[in-house]
Design brief:
five-stranded mixed β-sheet; 6 helices; secreted; elongated; 41% strand; CRF-BP_C; 2 domains; Jelly Rolls; mainly beta; Corticotropin-releasing factor-binding protein; disulfide bond
């Protein structure tokens, strides 16, 4: 996948993303003074994988943080920190492992560190519960519950996060973030508002989503369905009945099950299909029965302010602005 150079707008978006992290469950947002220059300088890092231990990238972890590079990160509480979260992100064809190096917290006193397989924001999850292979409760791995039995936690897609609460000043923990190639990516959040991608379902009964958390124009250049052994291409009268189709979704949250359907594709084609979507989140979702090998290729680019204004004035396509 080719990903275009990060933009200033992307940096501002991730700042807003962090500031709108999950509310509820006794967790709240603090007035945490995070420098956006420090927060996003890591997105363009060219650090090599498999760096020797003595050359491993290290820095402190903040109470509210975004991490997009491999390295070792240490959080030390200077005061009680009761509602903290760190978002981890890799490239679309990668998964993430979180390794606990050292932990000095008071589990009996109410401290916790919990890794979540995906992202949670405003009570919504990515991937949605419908599209993830694990049950919702299995996606949370709490250090205080698992202890030394789970010193390493691996994500199922290119994003993961941790929640943590620490009551006593001086308590700390250190973790190492590593990335690994995923030969069959499923459920991806794009780091960039511009790029191209090909999603393949390799004869597996699962649903996969590619989430672009920007308003974009999307061009679907190819959709092939049913190329498995001697099975022919299929076209069904209704996509929902076919069991194998692609959805284009839009909305302002990250849970794909709560987004609005824009169009469904269930007939193979080659040729550009253009669409401008003014939502905060545009998703290409592939639904697969497991009987066929399906493939969809698309490219996307960020909409400019004039294009967004035009969409906003269009009564047919303004649902994203009212959602």
């Amino acid at each position: 996948m080719r990903i275009m150079e990060r933009t200033f707008r992307e940096q501002l978006f991730f700042l807003v993303l962090c500031l709108s992290v999950l509310k509820g469950d006794s967790r709240y947002i603090e007035n945490n003074e995070i420098s956006k220059d420090e927060l996003f300088s890591f997105l363009n890092s060219q650090l090599r994988r498999d760096i020797p231990e003595e050359l491993m990238y290290r820095r402190p972890l903040r109470c509210l943080d975004m991490v997009a590079v491999e390295g070792q990160f240490t959080f030390t509480a200077e005061r009680p920190q009761l509602s903290c979260a760190a978002f981890f992100m890799a490239e679309p064809d990668e998964v993430i492992t979180v390794d606990y190096d050292s932990v000095d917290i008071d589990c009996r006193g109410g401290d916790f560190i919990t890794v979540f397989d995906g992202w949670v924001m405003k009570g919504e999850k990515f991937p949605s519960s419908q599209d993830h292979q694990l049950a919702p409760h299995e996606r949370y791995v709490d250090y205080c519950d698992s202890g030394s039995a789970r010193r390493s936690v691996r994500s199922s897609q290119n994003v993961a996060m941790i929640f943590f609460r620490i009551h006593n000043a001086g308590s700390s923990f250190t973790l190492t973030l590593r990335k690994h190639i995923n030969p069959f990516p499923c459920n991806v959040i794009s780091q960039s508002p511009e790029g191209s991608y090909t999603m393949v379902s390799p004869q597996q009964h699962r649903n996969c989503s590619f989430s672009i958390i920007y308003p974009v124009e999307i061009d679907i250049s190819e959709f092939s369905l049913g190329h498995f052994n001697n099975f022919p291409k299929r076209s069904a009268p209704g996509c929902g009945e076919s069991g194998d189709y692609v959805q284009l979704l839009g909305g302002n949250g990250i849970d794909t099950s709560k987004l609005l359907p824009i169009t469904d594709l269930c007939i193979s084609f080659i040729g550009p299909t253009h669409m401008k979507i003014g939502c905060d989140n545009t998703v290409v979702r592939m639904v697969s029965s497991g009987k066929f090998v399906s493939r969809v290729s698309f490219s996307y680019r960020l909409l400019d302010s004039q294009e967004l204004q035009t969409i906003k004035l269009n009564n047919v396509e303004d649902f994203c602005f009212n959602n």
